[in-house]
Amino acid sequence: MNTIYLKDILQQGDDAIAAASTFLGLKMAQLDCSDVETISGEQLSLLFSKIPPSWEFEELGKVLIAESMSETLGIAFFEFVNNRGSSQPLVAQTNKISYGTQTPKKAVQDVTPISIYFTSPSIPLSTAPSPLNPIKVLDKVIAEYRDYLLTEFRAKDPQLKAALEKAIDQPLFLAQEPFYQAHRPFKSGEKWQNLSIDAKLARVMQQRSGSEFAYLHQSQAIDHLLGQNASPLVVTTGTGSGKTETFLLPVIQNAIADAAQFRRQSGLTAILVYPMNALANDQFLRIQNYLKESGWEGAISVAKYDRGTKLKERQALRQNPPHILLTNYMMLEYLLVRPADREDIFANHRCRFLVLDEVHTYRGTLGSNIALLVRRLQTHLKDAKQDWCSQVPPELQRKRYPEFLPVATSATIKSVAEGEHSPQERIRLRDEAVQEFFSKISGVNKSSIRVIGEELAELQTPPQAVSPSIPYILWDLNRWLIRSPLSISQIVKKVKQEIPERSH
């Protein structure tokens, strides 16, 4: 959920306050009241103008961040809401509030603080908003837009005003129809517990995913990267497919095995490169949560190297390189040109994986720069200082000096040559295009690159669909929306084409 800052919208004026009210009323944002002590009655009225009057304090607590309110501001909010429509009056004291029309002085220390009215033990502030109804949201946005236009372009002449209202009320004048598209579920793969990952980590994934099965592309990628015949890999699947886990879990499992084999010796086992810090920050927290929930938090070290990394933190990284390092391509460039960081952070590495997330963004000149960066990194890893346990028995040779594997994730990729080919031929053409692209980025032989795409489950029309209460046409509708987005009028037209007219 987005965050709106009260301080900012008060400075921007009434229009910004009214716009914020719309977002709050739709539960599309939360209001942070930090650094605001006072607010006028007119501003409060605007702020609450689009928030349903029926909302009680618990409901308001979902969009108002109570912890950010000062006591003075909290009282102002409380009194406004109380006077707005509460059936039982509440009295606000200087520091506390309580029910009733009067508060005895001796009871002041026992009454409830302001913030409690905007929270509830059963409905925490972090609760996700209820799903939006797209049709209702569109209707509300159109109504708001209509009101704005009629207010902004006021016509004194009655005929002109009527003509304007008539034009605005024409269907599809202010907004196009919403388009709908269905997405088939991804095919299921192996059970989490049957994958080549730690049993505790598998339980975490089962709990987080809500299923005992991984998606097929997840289980294929994990088994490939952790198998005996591992090779460079590109996972190209759509949004919401869990492609992050296709490399995070092998990276974590490899670090677990390294920590167990070498008694938690510091040293890089994987480098994760992101196009944006926001992605790195998100996945840094995700890795930490996975390690904490699986009980491996103390054994595996994870760190970020970005522009926010302070000198002391860089010194700590030089002294104890982490098992897993997250960075972006710009900072990886800096890391390779800073002598102290370069020599010490890569020292005694057992780097198995280089992950390039969202690799489809590396095109043109940027792609060329990334390709050169990857080659410089590979060269430095080969020449990095190895003064710890440099002589190992043959059975540990592959673990101490593992083969370096570039891995990439990408949004769904299609070959421009696909055309009207068969599904198998389209997959072959896609794989060739991806292999050609990633070979240029990573420098590895394209024949060694495995490409894993998404596989979608087929929709099966259940037998009960013949029942009048569950029309068969709804299952056909799913199939239509999978092929391409359709507007409501297009759906109606399609249904009319499929269902013959009844003769009277």
UniProtKB/TrEMBL annotation:
Gene3D superfamilies: P-loop containing nucleotide triphosphate hydrolases. GO terms for molecular function: 3'-5' DNA helicase activity; ATP binding; nucleic acid binding. SUPFAM superfamilies: P-loop containing nucleoside triphosphate hydrolases (SSF52540). It holds the Pfam family DEAD. InterPro entries: DEAD/DEAH_box_helicase_dom, Helicase_ATP-bd, P-loop_NTPase. One of its GO terms (biological process) is nucleotide-excision repair. Residues 224-431 form the Helicase ATP-binding domain. This is Helicase ATP-binding domain-containing protein. It comes from Tolypothrix bouteillei VB521301.
